Amino acid sequence: MKISKMNPRTDMINRLNIKTYETMKNLLLTCTLFAFVMIAVPQADAQTPAPKQSEPIALVGGTIHTLAGDVIENGTILFEDGKITAIGSNVNIPSGTRQQNVSGKHIYPGLIDSYSQMGITEIGAVNMTSDVNEQGIINPNVLAERAFHPASRHIPIARSAGILTVITTPGGGLISGQSSAMKTDGWAWDEMTLKSSTGLIVNWPFPSRSDYEDNIQTLRDAFADARSYMKARQAMRSGQAQRHDTDSRWEAMIPVFEGNVPVVVSANEVRQIQDAITWAEEEGVRLIILGGSDAHLVTDHLRSKNIPVIITSVQTSSNRDWESYDARYSLPAKLHEAGVTFAIAGGSSAAYAHRLPYEAGTAAAFGLDADTALRSLTTYPAAILGLDDYVGTLEVGKDASLLITTGNPIEYSTQIEQVYVQGRESDMMDAHRQFYELYREKLDQRNAER
């Protein structure tokens, strides 16, 4: 039997057609999944931002945990135009103030998630909903707030869990960009930005890779170019040099050299942390360690250099066989005992940001006292990231970003009954509570039919 041979050109065309078909099919499936997720669950009032505070509000009779002084029993906190105006046990309440009786309840500062991808990623399986990584490996000019999506479904879920400030952080490359402190209520990214440029994000290379030294040199070269650019621009402005074109990448790094923006280095292993400290000293920049899994092994170094650590993912197991099962659970307690400044963050996943209080709760269950655990989500990250003029404690002049709860927010059984974000009163509805109400109604109907 004669077997006909296919023309090579025809074969190539067929292969291209098959590849194109597969690509289009995958794209169609992706778009279908995205559309299904967007319309299958009804859009609810949870996505509607609360209006700005229009009248003075006084919360009366609660136990106020200011975290700036003693606990105030049967206290009153008064706020107007989004700012705290009075706090104490004998507050003069002006006429026209809306009073809310919170007797038996507790009032705390809003929690801070100091490492998150909130607002820049939505659905992990749908690439078009993720805006975390930019092209290239050197992107210091990327500002996370510019890509922030205020209608993300994850925002109200985190807000209902007491997280009123998130540090939205870009990723990828050696220099990912700059993180931003974002409020979890508002209509648009600009009004939700509490503070731009809370840190320049550097992903320290892995020492085990063969290109480790090359990557370090690339990082050094980027900082050298940025510093040369800064000097050239300064000379131009002073009339000592000709016009020098603006470069947005190097322009964005000038506040780092001036000491106004810290460098947040993602580093977990001992060598990564030590090399990052040496590099930061050579560059003359302010350093924050992000991750810090091995930070307990270099506490003397960190304490002597006054370098804070943002611990990520306390609720996880060690990836080393020789470490104890509680190595990550007890890490905050070890750093606290050694005198190292730290904050606790969860993983970067926006979808799981609402678990942040339990990260600190786990640390409290493994050696860290409860007050310090709470501060690791409030006062400590506020101080580390330069937000303590706005949030972290309840004090006159600071933002009225606070929680009304049944107890300590890091306790699993605590219910957060109401939150205020700069005086905005949230309706406390979110996707999780929507589903709860939906299926509770289903259960009630089924029970009524029996």
Offer a few descriptive terms:
13 helices; eight-stranded mixed beta sheet; 450 residues; globular; single chain
What this model shows, in words?
- There is one protein chain.
- This protein is of the alpha/beta class and 450 residues long.
- The protein has 13 helices and 16 strands.
- The protein has helices at 8-40, 154-160, 189-192, 212-237, 248-251, 254-257, 270-283, 299-304, 331-338, 356-365, 370-375, 379-384, 431-449; strands spanning 57-64, 72-80, 83-88, 98-101, 106-109, 111-116, 163-168, 175-183, 193-203, 263-267, 287-291, 309-312, 342-345, 402-405, 416-421, 424-425.
- The strands form two sheets. Strands 1, 2, 3, 4, 5, 14, 15 and 16 form an eight-stranded mixed beta sheet that branches. The chain has an eight-stranded mixed beta sheet with strand order 6-7-8-9-10-11-12-13.
- Helix 2 links the parallel strand 6 and strand 7.
- The longest helix has 33 residues, at 8-40.
- The chain is globular.
- The protein starts with 7 loop residues before the first helix and ends with a helix.
- Residues 36-46 have low confidence and may be disordered.
Instruction: Determine Rg (CA atoms, Å).
Output: 25 Å
Largest sheet: 8 strands, mixed
What level of helicity do the residues show?
Answer: 25-40%
Please report the distance between the alpha carbons of the first and last residues: 72 Å
Low-confidence stretches: 36-46
How many beta-strand elements? 16
The helix count comes to: 13
What structural class do helix, strand and pairing data support? alpha/beta
Cα shape: globular
Strand content: 15-25%
Q: Order of helices and strands, N to C?
A: HEEEEEEHEEHEHHHEHEHEHEHHHEEEH
Mean pLDDT equals 90
